[in-house]
Amino acid sequence: MELRVGNASCENGSVISLYCSSQEVLCQIVGGLSHEVPNSTTFDSWQERIRKNYGFYIGLGLAFVSSFLIGGSVILKKKGLLRLVATGATRAVDGGYGYLKDSMWWAGFLTMAAGEVANFGAYAFAPATVVTPLGALSVLISAILSSYFLGEHLNLLGKLGCVVCVVGSTVMVIHAPEEEKINTVVEMASKLKDTGFIVFAVLLLVSCLILIFIIAPRYGQRNILIYITICSVIGAFSVTAVKGLGITIKNFFQGLPVVRHPLPYILSLILALSLSTQVNFLNRALDVFNTSLVFPIYYVFFTMVVVTSSVILFKEWYSMSAVDIMGTLSGFATIILGVFMLHAFKDLEVSWANLPHTHRNPTPSPAPEPTVIRLEDKNVLVDNIELSSTPSPVEKPKVFIIRS
Predict the structure, then answer these.
(1) What is the separation, in whole angstroms, between the first and last Cα of the chain?
(2) For residue 155, what pLDDT is reported?
(3) Predicted structure pTM score
(4) 130 neighbors 173 (Cβ within 8 angstroms)
(5) Distance (Å, rounded) from C-alpha 226 to C-alpha 141?
(6) DSSP letters along 24-87, please?
(7) Is 26 within 8 Å of 15 (Cβ atoms)?
(8) Nearest 5°: phi and psi at 359?
(9) Mean pLDDT of the chain
(10) Residue 404 and residue 401: Cα distance in Å, rounded?
């Protein structure tokens, strides 16, 4: 944009020409500059200060709240599905939707919806490469609650896995990348038109359709990775839609004309379709397989797909140093290790009580020393012979009968 001033004094009545591409706009100064700052300007600067100084921590707080709500919702939905099986109704894996009449399932669904709303806000304040890996806390919450409410055992290695997940999440937060500044819907639309992201989105969509219509009907009930992969791939679209809608809401309150732009409506449709598909196939996975297996594997797959999508779309890693990149990758690997410890050894009886016996054999008791009898001691030798030959009073005489 080029600015041309007709009068150098810029007094009242001066004409200013603004050139943008091939268009020209003429502006005339009709009043002097007031020294009073409007209230709206003060409010906007205060709001911007809050977002700049505390936005990242607000996003982290919302991510923690989201993890607690989502982790608890899995338990409630699993309880609802178990009650459905007890009544003999058609299971979710067989195409039944009887869980829609169960109050426990709806409680889990509403809890998950509240968690997704908190997650929605977290993506608006913090980078996706930070918010998504923090979902490991929901794995931790679901593992702890399942041991109390679903009767699933959590041994010592599982507890250590929970601690490792927390450590990995902390490392990722410390080395969090700086998010690329996307402030308007127009900028978000230009990002979505990037060739690399379009190719990535087409590959995800084609693979998801193949899994849904070809592989899932044949192997879905035997392989836990089928349903979970579908949910994870669809999750990349839902996270992108949530990020775009967050920018849309922010622009709406800033007074920008986002209602006329078609992108918010497209993202809303994508979000509705992706969330409904995720809920459907996640219910099928929970209906067939154990909760302690479904949720951790889903977390690992979902995080890998979303982080890859975020790197391609928002380019959040481009401004990071080598130390921060290695720290982020190490934190994510630590989280995966913690999830593996949490569920790979869940059937082992390992506790503080039997931990020493697990690693070393108990010390054998010392063997009794043999009695040594010297040949010179004839009296002792004779006494031992007599004691060994004398029958014990407890033993009864043996009678043998021979018949011809």
Answers:
(1) 130
(2) 77
(3) 0.60
(4) yes
(5) 24
(6) EEEEE--SPPPSSPPHHHHHHHHHHHHHHHHHHHHHHHHHHHHHHHHHHHHHHHHHHHHHHHHH
(7) yes
(8) -105, -25
(9) 75
(10) 10
Burial of 83 (0-12, 13-18, 19+ CB in 10 A): middle
- Judged on CB neighbours under 10 Å (0-12, 13-18, 19+), 8 is exposed
Q: What is the C-alpha to C-alpha distance for residues 166 and 67, in angstroms, rounded to an integer?
A: 12
**Residues β-bridged to residue 20:** 23
Q: Is the dihedral of CA 116, 121, 126, 127 positive or negative?
A: positive
195, 354 Cβ separation under 8 angstroms: no
For the residues of 284-302, what is the DSSP string, one character each?
Answer: HHHHHS-HHHHHHHHHHHH
Per the listing, tokens 């990349």 go with 236
Residue 342 corresponds to which amino acid?
L
**CA 53/CA 397 separation, integer angstroms:** 99
Q: Kindly report the number of other CB atoms within 10 A of residue 362's CB atom.
A: 7
In Å, what is the CA distance from 167 to each residue of 72, 129, 172, 236, 329?
21, 16, 9, 25, 13
H-assigned helices in 183-290: 185-192, 195-210, 216-219, 224-253, 263-288
Residues with Cβ within 8 Å of residue 182, at least 6 apart in sequence: 188, 191, 247, 314
Residues sharing a CB contact under 8 Å with residue 363, sequence separation 6 or more, in sequence order? none
Residues 217 and 257 sit within 8 Å (Cβ to Cβ)? no
What residues have CB less than 8 Å from 91, skipping those under 6 apart? Answer: 81, 84, 85, 287
Bridge partners of 17, per DSSP, are: 4, 26
pLDDT digits (tens, 9 = 90+) for 46-97: 556 666 666 778 888 888 898 889 888 888 888 888 887 787 777 766 667 7
**From CA 165, how far away is CA 157, in angstroms rounded?**
12
Determine the 3-state secondary structure of 5 from DSSP: strand
- By CB atoms closer than 10 A (0-12, 13-18, 19+), residue 37 is exposed
Closest to 296 measured CA to CA, from 237, 226, 344: 344
**Residues 175, 317 contacting (CB under 8 angstroms):** no
